């Protein structure tokens, strides 16, 4: 009987030790994965960061321009974008389907500026292969070709903010009461999972729509038209369930 009791006690202690070790391993794994709690307005997200862009040395290897009338450079760890006819600047990495994008942008004074601030997520070729970007894509920065392949486009301009799904330029949400201005810093957050697409400006939720046709992961880009602006503190992370 004593042997049985000792055996049961050993099993109990072993179970406790295993639970403690599992908890420690989980905590270490989360720390290594840079899991962060992100609070936006009234919503809370758990995010594993994949990109935290500081536009330091080597940024040119991480970003690719599509735009024949656009000039980009980096000043004070901010991406300086001076565009006239439309441009998209892609990050070269692939990102998962469930993501949170957070960035800051400020439009600068220029004659006839449109303070046109857009982000593109989930960019992929129609056959499911990785999206071809840069000169090899054949795109010049004109808007229409971006409607021909799978992606989400979240738009914030001097007249409205909208969310669309491509291919097909399908309008998912339209808010006319919100307009961008020069010399104003905006923090934009776009969260996408298999259920919903949610878009915030400076902590205020402006779009929340069902994700009826979830897209697989893909490329991320910032897009503009006829705008002079700084883009910075760009962060992209995988949403943790």
TrEMBL record:
Where is the secretion signal located? 1-29
Q: Does the keyword Signal apply?
A: yes
Q: Write out the entry's keywords from A to Z.
A: Signal
Protein origin, superkingdom? Bacteria
Name used for this protein in its record:
DUF1080 domain-containing protein
- The species is Sinomicrobium weinanense
- Organism phylogeny: Bacteria, Pseudomonadati, Bacteroidota, Flavobacteriia, Flavobacteriales
